[in-house]
């Protein structure tokens, strides 16, 4: 049975979501690298990085190019949600609540409390569902981040336009602070908290390739997200959703890309920490 | 004349009674009347007509011939007749005579020495204004010549060094004027030597003493400075004859001509010896060449000057004539340059024994002196950096003892905007070493007299950059506007000396931030907190630097209506980079900092909100991760055991 469960896979992310995450990774890394060179422009390490990339002008173009990708995936995702609602004839209520919804609910609060109990050794590991509370936080963090960093970024990109519309000049300064610090929060959060919660935690280390393969083994699901497994088993959905195991080639590519991205992110976060500790003190 | 009558009336009161001129002439009209004195027969005849026509014609004989007894014949004072004492009336003139060369010689019993009558005669004394008078100007040379012409006993005296005096004079420009042209205003013997007060030229009071000669000549040549402008410079000629050549150095006495020396010391006489390449002298056991390349002289700006015009101490008394003539003093003619050089650092260090410091010839060469407009000349504008570089190039003599901050100056200059203009573009109006340091009076920047002293630099640069200088003078950085005790910047604080670069160059644009930052520390910090500063850190040269907004030389506080940052001008100023600049856009705080709550509260609170959000999120999830980690490990171990169990 174990063997069969190990080789039985279900789809966790559809092709569009996988593509979307690849776009997020690429654009986010580019934005983080090029953005940090300006934020920490007085630090030799980032000055060196900037010259390595071709200087301020080149990184400026890269940053704007990656910003365009960000706006594209942001609206593509909105479009995806609308299409999904129509195609699957979902109601708003289904999207905003229920077991498969990404919107935090009462169950997440319970899960959080159970998790705390587990952390402090007064309970067993909670039976997590399809989306854990920290995964939901990640999802909305991107929403929040794109909105805040994106809008402040647009002000910085087109300051003459926005001031022509009546925005006071000092708002450009405020936009700079928001853009810069929110970006520091986002990069710091993704490259440490998200990396640990999703990839570096002992049971997934060094990475979880599911975001690229889209498939998770029934065995893993049964251990990792028992509530989801139980519900799928009960409803008989599991049998319908069974899918082939990911090909070794796909796994290889997924690992290579994933580990590259993770390493890049880690390097950036190490550089930031180095700067905070040794340069800014 | 009044004085004379008073004297006469005095004389009458004590005069011999009853002795009239008729009484005297009763005997003395006899032209055979003679007497013997010093074994010589002398005539005692008095020409009545001549006497009555003389200036003394109104006087009685006894007015001059006193103290004798007319009844006692022959009236002799011992062996001699009673002397006539001219000083009875002419006391002032006589005093002068007594002090004079002639008077002293007479006092010492020198029989050749002239007395009053030698020149003025005895009974036939005529006014010097009388054409027939021996002392009339026209007759002076022949009068003096009676004794001083060649062949007379006087001319053989050792103490009289001048020879052919009368011949030379008659050929001189003065003599020619007098004798050939009848020019009564020309100089005769007495004009230079004085009439009665004739003194040897060694005497400091002598009219022909070296120090008095200019004064003497200038009695007539009042406007001499007009034609000797370079030598005289105002009153130097008169007041400082010891530092410049005096008249007789060029215009020899008695034979004054326009060009006297050519006759005496022609160049070919000098070159007879000095064109020999082997000619040398030995100084302290070392050979010193005395060779003069004739072609050098021919190509020199001094080619029309005779050797002796510069080598002034050449004299026929020496053999060879140039023996120990010493070094040439260029300041004889180039007075102004000499004065400037005397003040220079070069002159000062030479004075304390630094032989490396240049004198005139160090830069101008010796015999091959070329004008500054000659491209072959070392002082031609394009050759100046190399000329100064002979000593000031890194590692050369001038840099050995130098302790200042300027290094590689020649190399840096050649790379600089000025140097490239000169060398690459051949721009002759560009600044070279001497444009800033002056050509003769260079001084270290620490010297308040220096052209590159911090108080003078703007003015020095302003000689070429007049427009910028005017702008700068009305800017806040000008002492006249700021009136500040603090150090104000001047040209070289931003435009590095020697390596002055083009202000459009990236290097300059980046460095200016730190130049301004030396004084405007806080503003520079806040500049680097904002976008312009941050990308400048990454080498973005085109991004706005201090002077792009504040102006460079015309910098003024924004409150000033002329400031580039004044409310009236700021939108335009931003437009140079941001074409769509507008009133609200210029509200961007280019020096904002989020650390100042009072000045920028919005920025301050936004920053703290963001920081709290950041710290909060990281604290929460950091803790979450830390708690998770040990649980996750034990869970994994449990899971593994379960798997192996199965």
Set out the fold topology.
The complex is a heterodimer of chains A (281) and B (646).
Chain A: H1 2-7, E1 9-11, H2 15-39, H3 44-53, H4 55-87, H5 92-96, H6 106-119, H7 133-157, H8 159-164, H9 170-200, H10 210-213, E2 215-217, H11 218-224, H12 226-235, H13 237-241, E3 242-243, H14 248-280
Antiparallel strand pairs in A: 1-2, 1-3
Helix pairs in contact in A: 2-3, 2-4, 2-9, 2-14, 3-4, 4-7, 7-9, 9-14, 11-12
Chain B: H1 2-13, H2 21-28, E1 34-37, E2 40-43, H3 48-53, H4 61-64, E3 76-77, E4 80-81, H5 91-99, H6 101-107, H7 116-120, H8 140-148, H9 165-171, H10 173-180, H11 189-193, H12 213-218, H13 224-227, H14 229-232, H15 236-239, H16 247-250, H17 261-264, H18 267-274, E5 280-283, E6 286-289, H19 294-298, H20 307-310, H21 335-343, H22 345-351, H23 360-364, H24 384-392, H25 397-400, H26 409-415, H27 417-423, H28 433-437, H29 457-462, H30 466-473, H31 479-482, H32 491-494, H33 506-517, H34 521-529, H35 531-537, H36 546-550, H37 570-575, H38 601-645
Antiparallel strand pairs in B: 1-2, 3-4, 5-6
Q: Care to describe what's here?
A:
Chain A contains 14 helices and 3 strands. Chain A has helices at residues 2-7, 15-39, 44-53, 55-87, 92-96, 106-119, 133-157, 159-164, 170-200, 210-213, 218-224, 226-235, 237-241, 248-280, and strands at 9-11, 215-217, 242-243. A 3-stranded antiparallel beta sheet of chain A has the order 2-1-3. In chain A, α2 (15-39) packs across α3 (44-53), α2 (15-39) packs antiparallel against α4 and α11 (218-224) crosses α12 (226-235). Chain A starts with a helix and ends with a helix. Among the domains of chain B are: 329-453, no CATH class; 472-587, no CATH class; 594-646. Helices cover 44% and strands 3% of the residues of chain B. Chain B contains 38 helices and 6 strands. The longest helix of chain B is centred in the last third of the chain and has 45 residues, at 601-645. The radius of gyration of chain B is 46 Å and the shape is elongated. The N and C termini of chain B lie far apart (161 Å).
